Amino acid sequence: MRAKELYAQARKFGEKEPEGLKLLTSAVALDPENVHYRYRLARAYYYNKDYENAVAQCAEVLKREPRHTNALTVMGSAYFFNGDFEKAVEAQEQALKVDPGNFYAQFNLAYACWQVDKERARVEWQNYIRMAADEPSQKSYVERAKQYLKQLE
Known about the structure:
Blueprint: H1 3-13, H2 18-30, H3 35-47, H4 51-64, H5 69-81, H6 85-98, H7 103-116, H8 118-132, H9 139-152
Helix pairs in contact: 1-2, 2-3, 3-4, 3-5, 4-5, 5-6, 5-7, 6-7, 7-8, 8-9
């Protein structure tokens, strides 16, 4: 079976399902230079709580496409859940250098800062709330950010 067909099948299962992860792994094995397949594989590892492999796949994506903001954001989140908060901060900062308006990177940066520098976390939560306040898709995140900010006061 060709990589494209495996990828299409994987999408039917979804990234959160083990079968989707297996199919994505096979698609990447057949087409290792395909950044899109690798990014989806990184997400599948992340959703399946295999954070080390998520980071490894994000690193492979970034070797091929250094400004891949989504890979940086997923990498930062995987670092966070592995307990490597400093690397999580660095990855989210990189994502924001590439895309300063990335709501998810800003939210994740504030959350990671909360683990290493409470004062900076306060500033980053304020930055997130300011940038996302008028974005309907961010409404629930903004409310969470406000709650987190209150906890830091």
